[in-house]
Amino acid sequence: MELAMSSPLFAKLSALFSSDAACLEGLERVRGRGHERLRVVAYRLGGLRYSWAPRFRLAVLLLLRDKFPELVGAIEVVDPTVAPVERRAMEELGCIVTTSPALCLVVEEPTLIFMPYADRVFFENLLILNWSPDKLGKIVVLGHSFSTMVKMLELSISKQEKCGVNEQREKVKRVLAIPSYVQELELCAEISGLFDNPLLGDEYPYELNQ
């Protein structure tokens, strides 16, 4: 918890949630007239017993909940393979632990979705389930940049199309379209191990790391 509390990521998130005009304006739109708190749903957190990164991720979410109780509500961790000891530990910290195998959810209330991997299948399914102005307007995503994700996808799709494989673009058409409709705020992508393993079919291309 101490590592997360002193991290650049938590410092940046705290600044955004407390004093960044663009962030606060966006949160107000998401929360609506009732000023509802954000329900946090964390996917692919990782096994707490085996790595510092999952523990760090969870600690950041808990710190946000505790520091901004008027903005952040319940934290739900979705993990169909969670170990009993990890489940007990998270529940003792006040988290809701869900073992549903569903890839993602239909959003009915203001929701912060934490997803540390740029998983095109997850995000396409999320967008399919919530492809309406009302539902998309209730979502905040803490994770990879959609713009960067689309750049990587475009490079991968272009390679496939040169080889005569043309169906991939249709499979991710909503992910390719969504950057035009979202407002992105830069965080701390330099923290290795927090947002990694893009699962996009290719390694990070050299030109995207410049």
Automatic annotation (TrEMBL):
- Give the InterPro entries listed for this entry: SRR1-like, SRR1L
List, for all copies, the residue spans of the domain called SRR1-like. Answer: 29-184
Which PANTHER family does its entry note? Answer: PROTEIN SENSITIVITY TO RED LIGHT REDUCED 1-LIKE, SRR1-LIKE PROTEIN
Protein name from the UniProt record: SRR1-like domain-containing protein
> Which organism was this protein described from?
Oryza sativa subsp. japonica
